[in-house]
Specification:
Helix content: 40-55%
Order of helices and strands: EEEHHEHEHEEEHHHHEHEHH
Radius of gyration: 20 Å
Number of helices: 11
CATH topology of the largest domain: Nucleotidyltransferase, domain 5
Strand content: 15-25%
CATH architecture of the largest domain: 2-Layer Sandwich
Number of domains: 2
Largest sheet: 5 strands, mixed
CATH class of the largest domain: Alpha Beta
Bound molecules: 5'-O-[(R)-(carboxyoxy)(hydroxy)phosphoryl]adenosine, zinc ion
CATH superfamily of the largest domain: ATPase, nucleotide binding domain
Oligomer: single chain
């Protein structure tokens, strides 16, 4: 009888503490995520020091649950995989330290993997088939990048944001309009009752290359919101908020869709993989679906639970495992 190898993946790069157990096939046996949204909500954004402290509190219970839910004992594990880059260093250190300790205690290999490669790999996991080569659009709170993905762990940057990430702009805009944190889901909820054509917000760099810029959009929203309050009063501004949220969502979705389609056109590739928290957004998903359908491109977007940060995506480490590319005992946490 052959035993199925089991792996533990850990994710602590930003504000989700996550652990997952997966097999070599790969099959995800458990995936547990403890969100820190309540910790950061009063500040309207992730506070690095608080994120690290919350990981320290949450990591062991999250690991325990991931093991229990998959009926796995520590001794059943064949390796520990941890996202060691990029991210908030203080937050990453918590996961990396735990992974090193487990690997040393259990005398099993340590695998250090990139969070971004993990996000792209989540598209392959969800598709259940090979999706490479493809164009990958990573849109999260920390990143907005277009990649030529030869494989999940062979990414070539085609374009990236020059300033804010798309999710960061949504988070800041939501805080400004008193919509709470995380901003993306709050904007999406507010936008449901809104008219996306009401405010013509800028679409920065829309006609120009594959790089992004979202800080100008955020500033435009700030001025529109400020002028609304000044000219029409607080109540009228609140009444206009759904239209403003919808207009903002539409501007972000237009830019992301246009650039992704341009990257597909330039590379001649016929598959688009979209990942990261912002890929949960329904307006963006529908817009990408329509554009890909028109262009004869296959679209791969994971379900929301695999778009936002999780540890199942650490299964991207399986190739390193197969190649014997184990991390050294002094594996570092890297911000980039
Ligand atoms: O991938 P992720 O969980 O963490 C990072 O690696 O940054 O992405 C988090 C980002 C946040 O900015 C959040 O506001 C955004 O994803 N987000 C959304 C939605 N859900 C999460 N943005 C737009 N619409 C959503 N439904
Ligand atoms: Zn992420």
């Amino acid at each position: 009888m052959t035993t199925v190898r089991r792996f533990l993946g850990l994710e602590t790069s930003c504000d989700e503490t996550a652990a997952a157990v997966f097999t070599e096939e790969p099959r995800i046996l458990s995936s547990v995520v403890a969100s820190q949204h309540q910790v950061h909500a009063p500040f309207g954004g992730v506070v690095p020091e608080l994120a690290a402290r919350a990981h320290i509190r949450n990591l062991l219970p999250v690991i325990r649950r991931a093991l229990e839910e998959s009926n796995t004992k520590l001794e059943d594990l064949s390796a520990i995989a941890v996202h060691n880059r990029p991210g908030l260093v203080g937050a990453l250190v918590v996961g990396v330290s735990a992974a090193k300790m487990l690997s040393s205690m259990l005398k099993i290999p340590l695998l250090g993997v990139s969070h971004l490669e993990g996000h792209v790999y989540a598209c392959q996991l969800a598709a259940g088939k090979n999706i490479f080569p493809c164009v990958a659009l990573i849109v999260s709170g920390g990143h907005t990048q277009l990649m030529l993905a030869h494989a999940a762990n062979r990414l070539e940057v085609l374009g990236r944001t020059k300033d804010d990430a798309a999710g960061e702009a949504l988070d800041k805009a939501a805080a400004l309009m008193g919509l709470g944190f995380p901003g993306g889901p709050a904007i999406e909820r507010e936008a449901k009752a809104g008219n996306a054509k009401k405010y013509m917000l800028p679409r920065p760099l829309l006609h120009d290359g594959l790089d992004f810029s979202f800080s100008g959009l955020k500033t435009a929203l700030l001025y529109t919101w400020r002028d609304l309050k000044r000219d029409a009063g607080d109540v009228a501004a609140l009444n206009a908020r759904p239209d403003l949220a919808a207009s903002l969502e539409a501007a972000v979705a237009d830019v992301l869709t246009t650039k992704a389609m341009r990257a597909l056109h330039q590379t001649g590739l016929k598959t688009l993989a979209v990942c990261g928290g912002v890929a949960c957004n329904t307006r963006l998903r529908l817009q990408l679906q329509a554009a890909c359908h028109k262009a004869g491109v296959e679209l791969q977007i994971p379900p929301p639970s695999l778009c936002t940060d999780n540890a199942a995506m650490a299964a991207v480490s399986l190739e390193q495992w197969r190649n014997g590319e184990f991390a050294p005992a002094d594996l570092d946490a890297l911000p980039y």
